[in-house]
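Hey,
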Amino acid sequence: MKLFKLRVRLTSLLIAFAALHSNGAPLVSIGDLGTISFAGKTTVKWDSNIFRQEANEVTDTVLVFTPGFNAVLGKNATDLDIGLSTSYDINKYQDKDYLNSELLHFLANAAYRTSRLQLSALASYDETKSNNERSNIAGDLIDRELTSLGINGEYTLSPKFSIETGLNWNEIAYVGGYASSFSDRKYLKIPVDIYYELTPKLDLSVGYQRGQIDVEASSQDATTDDFNVGLRGELLPKLVGSFKVGYNQYQHDNSARDKTSMSLDSNLTWTASSKLTHRLNLYRNFDASATGTGTEETKFNWSSSYVLNNKISFSGRAGYNIRDYLAGEREDKLLTLGLNGTYRINRYWNVNAGYVFSNNDSNEAGYSYDDNIVTFAAALTY
């Protein structure tokens, strides 16, 4: 009921901001406190395998209309900054019109700073209707609701030492006609990190993270204990970010599935030049599959962006995810490659074109697939 009320209120706000735009209303400024802007997007998407099936691939074209708005509050006025954004996808399939959907997205984040304390918070809610390598059904798409909540704070103990802790929670909830075929999953992480300043630009970290995986299916819950060390800051000239490596203990309700493994958590940015930027994300941890089975997941994601001039930019990405199912011999390897180009017409309008190739290679029959997606989009911010 709470989510329904939230959806109604946010949808009403979307309609109001769309009306402002249609009347030519300018960007809303709240003095020095912040701004509110309308954001709209229209996308044409061609998908070669909408159901992510190994055989009998189905192709379709989707028109996506996305009204929304963004708000930034607190900028240059207080120590508290708040960002809010919401959008509403209206998906229209050209052939399989029974797949049409309307999906809500909401994101809020906040940051508060004093001389010794830094706090950050995030909340998001996303509705999705799609198939992927974790869950798919031939001839139909699966409805999910993805919710994330998190708060983290770092306190400076002395000129050399600081401590950071927080709570991070996310949920995958399956809704609609296929909800009973899959298991909802909740994941709570509680990290504690102590930082020591090696140089003015580089910190050493020693940390521990407790994880609690709650699965709707019986006897599938698990806990993780991750002991890690790492670095953050300027690791090399032009290379900044954080890198953690650790020892992770996984304890399942069924003790026969207990496991230990190396953990990874890395976010690095390499500014090769004023025009070219590369980003690398590495991740290795435990999770649960759509049917509740425990999994060990290793992810590698690389992205690059190139700004040709103040109107034209390009980006590319490559990802490789390995998912091991702890209850059996199944292993999935997902390769993703993408290219995108954007042309900024003026301060309000931009257009872009993109291509994404996905290949899921599974050793279990029926779960491998190839998929190609081509998109053309026009976006307005006002």
